[in-house]
Amino acid sequence: MPSMANMEISSQHLLLLSFYLYSLFVSPEAVKATSISNNFSAACSEIEVKALLEFKHGLEDPSGRLSSWVGENCCQWDGVACSNGKGNVIQIDLRNSYNVTYPEYIMFGREAEAYEWSSLGGKISPSLLNLKYLSHLDLSKNNFHGIQIPSFLGSLRSLKYLNLSHASFAGMVPPHLGNLSNLQHLDLFPYSYTNVDSESLWASDLNWLSGLTSLRYLNLGNVNLSLASNHWLQPINLLPSLVELHLPACDLRSLPKSLPNVNFTALRVLDLNNNYFLSSLPPWFFNISNLVDLRLSNSEINDTILDDAWRNFCNMQALDLSFNGFRGEFLGSLSKCSNTSLKVLRLRYNSFSGQIPESLGNFKSLRCLQLNGNSFTGSIPASIEKLSFLEELDISSNRLSGTIPENIGQLRALSYLDLSMNSWEGIVSEIHFLKLKHLKCLSLSSVNQSLAFSVRDEWVPPFSLQVIWIQDCRLGPAFPAWLSTQKELVSVTLIGGRISGTIPGWFWKLSPKIRWLGLQNNQLTGILPKSLNFSPGAIRVDLSSNLFRGTLPLCSNVQSVSLSNNKFSGPIPQTIGQEMSFSQILELSGNFLSGRIPSSVNKMKQLTTLDLSGNQLSGKIYTHWKGLDELNAIDLSRNNLSGGIPSSMCLLPQLQVMKLSSNNLSGELSLSLQHCTHLATLDLSDNKFTGRIPNWIGARLLSMSILNLRVNMFSGSIPEELCGLPALHILDLAQNNLSGPIPPCLGNLSAFSSLRPYFSVPYASPYSEEIELNVKGRQLEYIKILYLVNIIDLSGNNLRGEIPDEITRLSYLGTLNLSRNQLTGIIPENIGDLKLLETLDLSCNKLSGHIPPSMPSMTSLNYLNLSYNNLSGQIPSANQFLTLNDPSVYEGNPGLCGPPLPINCSMPNEDGAHKQDDQDEEDRSEKIWFYSGIAVGFVVGFWGVCGSLIVKKSWRYTYFRFVDRQKDRIYVMIKVNMARLRRKLTNGGR
């Protein structure tokens, strides 16, 4: 499969070809109704007139295309044709002739409205059954808004041509169509050019196709055939006359491994693009020997190209294997064919490798060569100059290196040239473009930034470009003067060209035609005009990351504007809402803008993204949000805003991203936030919010995937309701005043337990989201890959209790930071189950016990901090712990020993342990003898006296008389002393 590196292409580059094709075809032509001239003198019958009028009555015709359908001679009506002599209606051609600018994309805005106005809709009347001789029915490119294809069409036995494509029919394909034994052309491609969410057309099986024995052309593209996926090919194999088969995007999931009696002898065009075969090509596939056009792009095919297998395809004129997992050196295999009829070769985004062979020059009929997104190495072969008919050359996103050959300038038919995203070096000179007078689209870049343009200031190129995209090539220091000769430019992208100085005045004279402008990452300076005018409907203006200064310019008629990371200063113009009312994306971050957000922003009704971060805006947050119904991303972070979050922000029905970090906001979180039910990112970090973290964040904001509340003054416990957020994969509550235990239910956070594909993220904002997180002991900024980041950071609080074992169930957790709390107990024994954990910080707690034996199995771990706890025992010395050899990781744990600490567990400490054991044993022995001696002495003494008294009666009498005398003496002594004391006290009182 193609590598991720090959697939990571900038959005500007992906749109390059789109712009080129768009610019070729766009024209503001008026809508025209299809008219089929008919000069037959014979009039159609009354039955046919009535049938057509009933058919017209059922249709919706907003533009009046059927206004000619009056009178009795229907043969003169627009879209109707009759047979010679008899005047029978044989053809109805009501296809929409609106000039579709780019037929593979959905229309929007005014173009969509104009197209809808020109389209027919409504219902199809069964009165058509009275047209007994009807052989041609074309209702394509209209919009029937999801009605079913009428089953009675299967009774029009004379039909040879049926085209219902691009007309938004839905539901099941009626198998009755299988009765049309004379049918030669069938096209049911369902989607309209304006219905993005149109219902699907589907078929449970294709057995009905076997009745279409005359069929030569079949297009069921985008018809859902998943229910017929296992047996879809057998009925088609029974169509002996089939010449063209189109089944793109049909949700087919299998290519039969065997197919007895391959019957595709007449088949010349096979289109299976955009399916899910998940297999290699079966052997029978290579027996379709008469193919001239094969399309297998984006069909999940993994195969190694072998010379013998492709020998039967030497007559191929067009071959498209793009976006699959093909491997090998296919160009070398194909170049062994003696026939040079190949005109189109598309091998984009596979795993082809090796050098582009010199034999490429043998394909002298080649008009389109797309090898982009593979792993080709080496340089462009010199034989490429033999491809004199080549119109399109795209070898971008490979591993090509060296210099670009000058003989590319000999390809006089070339109109599209893309050599970007390779490791080119050296010079691009005027010779490289010597004979490219037809060139319309030019794309160049060098990943090692070693490519430079070297042309004269007075150079006048032979071409007139419409699209130019040059990145990371030295164009400067001066602004390219030769661009002044390019009067047809609609897209200009010069990124990282080391261009300095001001933009010349002549360039702004070209701007009214430009629909895409990207001059970011240069060193352009100066003050821009207050108003920049571009072509109506311009898509993107990006002047970010330069040195422009002065007041902020306004760009009218532009959908997306980025002026970020410059030196614009002063307030945002008050009229920005009126002058940029069509803008959808406004990015002004990283400037020196001050003051408040103008109230006129409320007039930007199409706004989807507003990024004002990193400025000097002050005061309370703008409150006039109501009415901005399309807004889904707000970034006001890194300003000087104060107060609270206005309740009007949660009146935005599409809001998905709210970033208010690094301001002076305060107070408790407003209850109104619970109405932001689509919110996926909430970043309130580095403010002064207080109170408890509300339970409703977990109970109501179920789309939340990123919750960043770090560096505030939140108190109380962590609400267990957060555990119920199914998409949450970044939870940062660090540096607050939170207390209580870590909720064990955090182990239920499902987003940490499975891998999320990019397209499964719960938000789809065009905003290029970035966020700062504390990872590996330092602040890191994450851009674009946020959907892959899995973090729990609860550090710097007053959390108590043990680390819950449940947290070890979060198998996709990447960072866990519980440092600087009051946690006790042991590190969970199963922590080794966190195989993808890269960062673990448990420092500055009161953890005890040993380092769990499972931790060395955490092979992804590259940052560990266990310092300042009460851990004991030997530090593991296997696997990942061999790389974690910084003593500071373990310091502050007096009981730990072993490398990298200087305390050796195996020798001094081991002897010491034995000595301590011996000393303890000696102490125990002494105590035993001591208490034993006391016991023996007591027994001997007691029985030595008492025993004698019992045995000798005279001793017993003598002993008790002695005791009595001593008692009397003591009594007399006490009495005498008491009398003396009394007399002294009496005399002292006198």
TrEMBL record:
Membrane-topology descriptor: Single-pass type I membrane protein
Transmembrane segments: 928-951
This protein's GO CC annotations: plasma membrane
Signal peptide: 1-33
SMART domains: LRR_SD22 (SM00365), LRR_TYP (SM00369)
Cross-referenced InterPro entries: Leu-rich_rpt, Leu-rich_rpt_typical-subtyp, LRR_dom_sf, LRR_N_plant-typ, LRR_R13L4/SHOC2-like, RLP23-like
Keywords linked to the UniProt accession: Cell membrane, Glycoprotein, Leucine-rich repeat, Membrane, Receptor, Repeat, Signal, Transmembrane, Transmembrane helix
Compartments it resides in: Cell membrane
Keyword Transmembrane helix included in the entry's annotation: yes
Pfam family, one: LRR_8
UniProt name for this protein: Uncharacterized protein
Species this chain originates from: Manihot esculenta (Cassava)
Lineage: Eukaryota, Viridiplantae, Streptophyta, Embryophyta, Tracheophyta
